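Entry 14. Ran structure prediction on the chain below.
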Amino acid sequence: MGELIQVEGREVPVEDGTTVQDLKERLDRDDDELATYEENGEVKVLGDRDVVADAVPEGTNVSFQPGEGQVFGRPGLGRGSRPGEGRDVRSVGGRGGRPGGGV
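Output, structure tokens:
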């Protein structure tokens, strides 16, 4: 049977049993990206083994975010670093991901 969800504004049908990993492969997304959606003002992160139709309410918008070690989708690059010398921006400036300690 399945259901319809939105993926970054585009309507996408998902069949029963389709996992987040299956969806990533079908949409040609990077394996390291995280699938997220918002529910009651809270951002929820989906695991690769989560079944989309079971975890995400029909019509919900799913987005993909850079995964661990990626900054704006580019692996290993943090502010002020060169390729291969990436920094974890969550710790830069001590303000939970705001590079340079901005407010």
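The chain is about 10% helix and 30% strand. Will compare against last week's run tomorrow.
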